[in-house]
Amino acid sequence: MNPLIRSFLFGAVVLMTPVAYSAETSLPASLLAGVSDADLSAGLKSGLGSALESAMSKLTQPGALKVSPPPALAKIEAAAEGAGQAGAAGDLSSSVSAAVAKIAPQAADLMKSAFKDVKIADAKAALLNAPGGGTQYFKKAMTPALHDKLLPLVKEAVASAGVADKAKSLLASAGSLASLAGVKSLGDIDTYVCDQVINQSFKLMAKEEAAIRANPSLLTNPLAEKVFSLIKK
Length: 233
Fold this sequence. Notes:
The chain is mainly alpha-helical. The protein has helices at residues 3-15, 37-59, 71-82, 86-116, 123-128, 133-161, 163-174, 177-180, 189-214, 222-230, and strands at residues 25-26, 129-130.
């Protein structure tokens, strides 16, 4: 069997292995009894604002934002690397990494701006859905506008890094393997990268939310500390 095809088949099995994530848990509503909706909303937004600031500070660190090529291309890339064609594989990953590194600071600024515009309608549900209910609430509210503003910046960064050219080169080197992987075209790489940047940004925020839920004393705002202390995990 062609070594590139053999590497592809092995790599496809690895890439298709499901990843387990921790499930959300609904906390009892009684934990928030006696606290007004206004205080819950203010405490949630202040606490999540702190989580966002910490997450975005980490996002802008070199190498913090990691985005791999789209799955179909990643399969071919892994196969090429396994078959000893490291150059064809590494060029694509390097170009994607260069693109996301360029837009990380811009993504952080847009996240902060979008966060400020969110009006909280159900703080209680967000707080009781642990460990990342607050982040999920804001992700749902922020993503549409965030995507619209971030996508043009992603397109510019992707074009500057030559991602499409590297992807075309990888497909050309793969030959018939591209058809085997189900890759008929480059697809919308810009949208894929944009979605990945947004998802990873919120994952960082969720980690910070989990940290303040576990230790509300990290918060400097008294109301936020009070609210998160009620649901301390």
